[in-house]
Write a structure and sequence with these properties.
single chain; about 375 residues; alpha/beta; Aspartate Aminotransferase, domain 2; Aspartate Aminotransferase, domain 1; 3-stranded antiparallel β-sheet; about 40% helix; about 15% strand; binds pyridoxal-5'-phosphate
Length: about 375
């Protein structure tokens, strides 16, 4: 069986987890800060806050940014639904702008059109998604956000380690906080770094950082924090706002630390696999991404577009190749349709959805397996035209 994506757990990972199981802390121990510091260093940001999963990261980010029932936010329809749901959790309203047909990420011009179609001050924020691992040009989005007074929450779940080169020629890693207020990551096993369930929020903003720490743990302020309003003694802690238990455990953090040490080399392997696919599909009727210049793609997914996607999907399945579709557009989900029916209003997203297929992409995919996948797809697409 060849899935579209898969985690890679080594003996070192297992040893790291066992060590925590034999230690004093299964949760709220030293591995959390160690993972946060290592992750912040990897991404190149000031702060990282570990949380229970990527969805919790989005929820806390929306809360920290002050989303409420009068908040209107723009995101892409081609993402996992959690990118939009976080706004709904806080009672806010989600608006979708179409994707750019080449990068498959939020089209900045469509975002500006949407902003201008409403009264000034209508929108509060934008959630761009580094879809499939392609780092969005956050510098350009920052210019737009500043022009209209918006915040940016970057959903970087697909792109840890990916980067674009900015207008000054500098490397800007996805989620580094230089342009977006906050960015979020997921450690679901299908993502680059696996902790079972897990997530991270990254930022360079002190205030947001402290707010996130508090929200992650019941809205509680502990001893040693000068924000305490009263102090009755060593036991005393204060719940100052309504937070959650969105903590990551030390067991998961230890796995994350160990996984992170291999992230760079695995990212290079993903790019190697992508290069082989790119070459194999050149000049065929299998459509592949043409990348913008000056980006390093993180290849969470390798996506092709074909005219008879369902037939290819079924045929690959028969041969135990489990390709997948990313994603059913969020605006076509019954929940969002019931709020506002966008059907037909986002033609590029819908056209993409009609043709897209994510084919196997993970570091342990062998050359033989990849060749088998390529041959299956090529022989199918040849018979089609
Ligand atoms: C995986 C993912 C999430 C959610 O992460 P979980 O850890 O599964 O909650 C959010 N956004 C995107 C783009 C994702 O791929």
């Amino acid at each position: 069986m060849i899935p579209y994506g898969k985690q890679h757990i080594t003996q070192e990972d297992i040893d790291a987890v066992v060590q925590v199981l034999q230690s004093d802390f299964l949760t709220q121990g030293p591995k959390i800060a160690e993972f946060e510091n290592a992750f912040a260093a990897y991404i190149g940001c000031k702060y990282a806050v570990a949380v229970a999963n990527g969805t919790a990261a989005l929820h806390l980010s929306a809360l920290a940014l002050g989303v409420n029932s009068s908040t209107n936010v723009i995101t892409t329809p081609i993402t996992f639904c959690a990118s939009a749901n976080c706004i709904r959790y806080c009672g806010g309203n989600v608006f979708f702008a179409d994707i750019d047909a080449a990068t498959l990420t939020l089209d900045i011009n469509k975002v500006e059109e949407l902003i201008l179609s409403k009264p000034a001050g209508f929108f509060s924020g934008i959630i761009p998604v580094d879809f499939a691992g392609l780092p969005v040009n956050m510098e350009a989005f920052k210019v737009l956000a500043d022009k209209y007074g918006l915040w940016i929450l970057e959903d970087a779940c697909h792109a840890p380690g990916g980067y674009f080169i900015d207008s000054k020629g500098e490397k800007q890693q996805a989620g580094n906080g230089n342009f977006a207020e906050l960015a979020i990551f997921s450690f679901h096993p299908v993502k680059h770094i696996a902790t079972g369930e897990g997530g991270m929020i990254t930022t360079n903003d002190d205030k947001l950082y402290h707010k996130l720490l508090q929200l992650r743990s019941h809205g509680m302020v502990y001893q040693g924090n000068d924000k305490l309003i009263e102090n009755h003694g060593g036991w005393y802690m204060e719940m100052q706002e309504l937070g959650f238990n969105y903590r990551l455990s030390d067991i998961q953090a230890a796995l994350g630390i160990s996984q992170l040490t291999k992230a760079g080399e695995r990212l290079r392997r993903r790019n190697e696999i992508a290069a082989i696919y790119n070459k194999a599909f050149e000049g065929t009727n299998v459509e592949i991404l043409s990348l913008p210049a000056n980006i390093y793609h993180a290849y969470h997914l390798y996506i092709i577009q074909v005219s008879d996607r369902k037939k290819l999907y079924d045929e690959l399945r028969k041969n135990k190749i489990f390709a997948q579709v990313h994603y059913v557009p969020v605006h076509l989900m019954p929940y969002y349709k019931n709020i506002d029916d966008y059907t037909g209003k986002l033609p590029r997203a819908e056209n993409y959805y009609a043709k897209c297929l994510s084919i196997p992409m993970y570091p342990t995919l062998s050359n033989d397996e990849q060749e088998f996948v390529i041959n299956m797809i090529k022989s199918h697409s040849k018979s089609e035209v």
